[in-house]
Structures are given as C-alpha cells and as structure tokens.
C-alpha cells in the first residue's frame, strides 16, 4: 500500500506542476529544445501473487465423502486447485515408476477411496518419517478421482516446512517443535517463534485487526504485508531487537 500511495503522489505532483518535457527559454528569451532525458514516473510495483498457497482447506473424510457422493460436483470444487487436506496416514509407498506417494484418509479400516498424494522430490525425507496412523497435513494440486482422489506435487506438513524456513533464517542451530498450539522454532533460551501465513490478502487483513505489530508481557507479535505472514514470539525474557529484526526479515521473505 505504501508503494502504491507513493506512486499516486508522484503522478499527482506531475499533473499539478506540469512536470515532463516542454520547451524552456534561455536568458535572451529564445526557446531551447527539451532535454534528452525525459522526466518519467516509475510504475507501481506489481502486487505479489500467492498462487502457491491453498485455495481450499478440508478434512480427508469430507473430501472423500464428497467424491463418493458426486464426483462431478467435487471436481468443480477441488480439481486443479491447491488444497490443504488434514487426515491420517494410511500407506507410504512407491508406484511402478518409483514415485513416492502417501495415502491419507479418516483412519477407518478398508477405506475406499483414499487421498493419494504424490510427493515432491524434496519431500522424500518427510515421507520416510511418516508412520501409519500419524496425523498429517498435506498440500498439493488435486487431479481428480481415479480409484483414489489423486493429489500431485504434495508438501507434507507445510506448517513444519514453514517453521524450517524461519529457523534457517533466524537460528540455524535451533529446532522446530510441534505442540497442540502449532509448530514453532524453539531457541536455546526457551524462546518460541511460531510463524503462520494467511491464504489471501482478505484473510490477512481480517487477522491484522487482532494481530497488529505489538509487544506485551507475553511476547511480541510481528506481521508482514509482503508475505501475508505473522510470527508470534513468546519468551519469558525481553526479546532482543536483533532477534525481532531477523524474524521480520524471515517473514518478509516467505
């Protein structure tokens, strides 16, 4: 918003003051040619798009029930969209092309269909760490129903991946831990940094009315309009300005 406002201010000044190429007069009153360097106005920066973030959040049981009930309607709602799906791990296997996939369902036995998530190459380690029955969250492109509900380019437990990005930027020696409240970067002194990202600008704006940049006796809340992300820094001690700067930089880069 600040960049847009600045650009509009420049345009307003150009209009009211008649900035730009025009003829000028020298001391004798003779018209001179306009300078070769024309006055230009920088275009406002293009708004960042977040097309890689989920468009829909759904439990595995719900998306499976919808596909069983009406495939056409379910395709209209989910197919070719990035969807975040929460459920329980069924199997972790490879297909005949050696592509790794994870099946996700409600946890019921002999569940048909299941969500079948083909993971990105970068998620091999995360897939190897899963066990049958684990709670899991996956994000990927829904490709429709073919025996199972197929999801491609899956990221496993994206909140963990988000935490790891912040950890690498802020404190590479720290660890990411998961509790009921969420996944946080745990520093050696006990400070916790929990990053969260909004899915849309509208969602970010709504959340911003409650989670403004502030400091209180429970810690610090930071936000970034560049990435539409927040970070909750919780500590029993006074949080250092240097740490806050690192967290803010990490948020802006997400």
What features would you highlight for this structure?
single chain; 254 residues; alpha+beta; 2 domains; 6-stranded antiparallel sheet; 5-stranded mixed beta barrel; 7 helices; disordered N terminus
Describe the structure in your own words:
With 254 residues, this protein is α+β, with helices and mostly antiparallel strands. The protein folds into 2 domains: 56-156, Nucleic acid-binding proteins (OB fold (Dihydrolipoamide Acetyltransferase, E2P)); 158-253. Helices cover 29% and strands 33% of the residues. The chain has helices spanning 2-17, 60-69, 71-78, 124-128, 158-170, 201-208, 241-253, and strands at residues 24-25, 31-32, 56-59, 82-94, 100-105, 115-119, 135-146, 148-156, 175-179, 182-186, 192-197, 214-216, 219-224, 229-234. The strands form 3 sheets. It has a 6-stranded antiparallel β-sheet with strand order 9-10-11-14-13-12, with helices on one face. Strands 4-5-6-8-7 form a 5-stranded mixed beta barrel. A hairpin with a 2-residue loop joins strand 9 and strand 10 (182-186). The model is unreliable at 1-40 (pLDDT under 50).
């Amino acid at each position: 918003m600040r960049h847009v406002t600045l650009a509009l201010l420049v345009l307003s000044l150009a209009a009211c003051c008649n900035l730009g190429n025009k003829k000028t007069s020298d001391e004798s009153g003779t018209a001179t040619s306009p300078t070769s360097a024309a006055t230009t106005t920088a275009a406002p920066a293009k708004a960042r798009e977040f097309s890689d973030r989920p468009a829909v959040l759904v439990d595995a049981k719900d998306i499976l029930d919808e596909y069983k009930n009406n495939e056409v309607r379910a395709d209209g709602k989910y197919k070719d969209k990035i969807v975040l799906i929460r459920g329980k791990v069924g199997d972790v296997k490879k297909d005949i092309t050696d592509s790794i996939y994870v099946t996700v369902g409600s946890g019921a036995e002999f569940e048909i269909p299941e969500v079948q998530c083909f993971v990105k190459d970068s998620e091999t380690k995360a897939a190897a760490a899963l066990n049958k029955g684990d709670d899991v969250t996956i994000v990927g492109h829904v490709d429709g129903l073919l025996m199972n509900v197929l999801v491609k380019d899956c990221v496993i437990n994206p909140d963990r991946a988000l935490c790891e990005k912040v950890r690498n930027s802020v404190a590479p020696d720290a660890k990411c831990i998961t509790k009921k409240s969420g996944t946080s970067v745990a520093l050696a002194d006990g400070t916790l940094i929990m990053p969260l990202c909004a899915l849309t600008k509208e969602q970010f704006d709504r959340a911003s009315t409650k989670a403004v940049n502030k400091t209180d006796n429970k810690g610090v809340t930071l936000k970034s309009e560049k990435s539409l992300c927040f970070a909750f820094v919780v500590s029993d001690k006074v949080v250092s300005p240097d740490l806050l700067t690192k967290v803010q930089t990490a948020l802006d880069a997400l």
